[in-house]
């Protein structure tokens, strides 16, 4: 897909991987619809992007919030071609705590609701909008959906039952949704990032983060940078032969139990 002039929704756009994806796609000429729950940080992203950008405060797990926001994007830009799902949370708890308490069901529901249900909520409404696009190029492409999974899907650490399950679910839906949408000329690809230097690890002391790098990452011996994730997002959008797969972006990382 040629990105110049295309319209892209990015969720989790106010920080980390989502923010970097907004910047990369905008630099390639795409018009950006930035979705996040943090209104103040969204405003900062929009000021940084400048140009043709729309921001919306969106709860990805809420049907009406997503439906209304996608309709607003199409009304404002006239179409929707790309959806990048970066919204996510990593709330953790042990299945049984040190005090003998069970995993809080509210935590489970929150993580699954945002990471998995929220991803599919964006997918389904974005896909409907994409079906209305004119086919493009020799393959007749109408759109591309890019999801964020995680290495934790298969290598979850202590306390990550909900997070790992949610990201495994993202990987699991990639192929069947791609099969569902192939007849409409819409591709679906997921990225499984490893350890990235984002807000989720920003509060760690340097010695702690370096210890994690030394124990878990093969090469290069550092955490990933958001712009490296965003570069892969752009490549997936541009490469029409990438479909129905999950790509690991992890420098060969192998997670330890803690």
Written description of the protein model:
The protein has about 260 residues and is an alpha/beta fold. It has a single domain, classed as Rossmann fold, CATH 3.40.50.720. The chain contains eight helices and seven strands. It has a seven-stranded parallel beta sheet, sandwiched between helices. Helix 4 (about 105-130) links the parallel strand 4 and strand 5. Helix 3 runs parallel beside helix 4. The chain starts with 6 loop residues before the first strand and ends in a 9-residue tail after the last strand.
What secondary-structure arrangement, pairings included, does this model have?
Blueprint: E1 7-11, H1 16-27, E2 31-36, H2 39-49, E3 53-57, H3 63-77, E4 82-85, H4 105-130, E5 143-148, H5 152-155, H6 161-181, E6 186-193, H7 206-216, H8 226-238, E7 245-249
Parallel strand pairs: 1-2, 1-4, 2-3, 4-5, 5-6, 6-7
Counting helices, strands and paired strands, the structural category is alpha/beta
Oligomer: single chain
CATH superfamily: NAD(P)-binding Rossmann-like Domain
CATH architecture: 3-Layer(aba) Sandwich
Question: Strand content of the residues, in percent?
Answer: 15-25%
Number of helices: 8
Beta strand count: 7
Please tell me how large the radius of gyration is.
18 Å
Main β-sheet, spatial strand arrangement:
3-2-1-4-5-6-7
- CATH topology assignment: Rossmann fold
What portion of residues is helical?
Answer: 40-55%
Highest-level CATH class: Alpha Beta
Q: How many domains make up the coordinates? A: 1
- The H/E string reads EHEHEHEHEHHEHHE
Mean pLDDT: 95
Overall morphology? globular
> Distance between termini?
41 Å
Q: Which ranges are low-confidence, i.e. pLDDT below 50, for 5 or more consecutive residues?
A: none
| Major β-sheet annotation | 7 strands, parallel
């Amino acid at each position: 897909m040629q990105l110049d002039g295309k319209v892209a929704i990015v969720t989790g756009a106010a920080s980390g991987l989502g923010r970097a994806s907004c910047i990369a796609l905008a630099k390639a000429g795409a018009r950006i619809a930035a979705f996040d729950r943090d209104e103040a940080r969204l405003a900062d992203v929009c000021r940084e992007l400048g140009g043709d950008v729309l921001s919306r405060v969106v709860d990805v797990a809420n049907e009406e919030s997503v439906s209304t926001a996608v309709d607003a994007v199409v009304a404002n830009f006239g179409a929707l071609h790309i959806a990048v799902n970066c919204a996510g949370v990593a709330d953790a708890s042990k299945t049984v705590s040190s005090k003998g308490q069970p995993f809080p069901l509210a935590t489970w529901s929150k993580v699954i609701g945002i990471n998995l249900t929220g991803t599919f909520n964006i997918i389904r409404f974005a896909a409907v909008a994409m079906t209305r696009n004119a086919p493009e190029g020799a393959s007749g492409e109408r759109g591309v959906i890019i999801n964020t999974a995680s290495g934790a899907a298969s290598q979850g650490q202590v306390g990550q039952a909900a997070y790992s399950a949610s990201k495994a679910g993202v990987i699991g839906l990639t192929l069947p949704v791609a099969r569902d949408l192939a007849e409409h000329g819409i591709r679906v690809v997921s990225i499984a990032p490893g350890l990235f230097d984002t807000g989720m690890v920003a509060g760690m002391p340097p010695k702690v983060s370096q210890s994690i790098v030394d124990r878990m990452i093969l090469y290069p011996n550092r955490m990933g940078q958001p712009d490296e994730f965003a570069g892969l997002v752009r490549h997936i959008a541009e490469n029409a032969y990438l479909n129905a797969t999950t790509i690991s972006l992890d420098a060969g990382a192998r997670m330890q139990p803690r």
